[in-house]
Amino acid sequence: MEFLFILLLVIFAIVMYKLSGFGGRVKLGQPNQETYPYFKNTALLTPAEISFRHSLKIVVGDSYDINSKVRLADLISVHKGLPKSEWSRSFNQIKAKHVDFILVDKTTTEILCGIELDDSSHNNPKRQNRDSFLDAAMKSAKLPLLRFKAEQTYNSKEIEEAINLVLKPSLMSPDESEEIKVRIEPDLDVNKIDEFITGKCPQCNAELVERKASKGRHEGVRFLGCSNFPKCRYRKVLGESN
For residue 119, how many C-alpha atoms fall within 13 Å in the half-sphere facing its CB? Predict the structure, then answer.
């Protein structure tokens, strides 16, 4: 009888030990958090992204809400009716990508504009392929995407002009709109005119060179561009060519 009592005590002790979580992961109750190999990241944004977001907040004020690190699949969707394999392939291309910043309507949360902050990592060929896909995907979904080069400081006026260009185009004259487009266009097809202009780039102090857009929507537009392109994207419109 005494042996049976001791055996029951031992069984009870083992059960309580398991339920307490000290005996490893159990199926009853809440899982032991120590069994999962995760830890909290320090911050959602990098120091460069925090700096840019601060400048962006000053520009947009209370006009829009700013969301950060938004998954691309939450911004655009794959058309229905595609073959299953094609739909899956298209979705897989967007499910693991994100956009740095998104401007949305404060009341309806309508998605208005995406913003990417390009640091030195965007010079990597693999990252450039990713950027090209992102640009094309956003364009196909008719969702504007702006790109800004990561800097130590930011020109609030340039940020505001770029945002107004895509969200408030009616507020600008055609000439103002064209100049801003040329200045911020990331992949402008140009012909270099064999003449260096006297003067230095106001952003990086490299020489300025006269260029002319050779095709596309800016065809014929003459402008000064930094000779340090693409590291520096400074541009200033000179006027239309004949």
Answer: 9
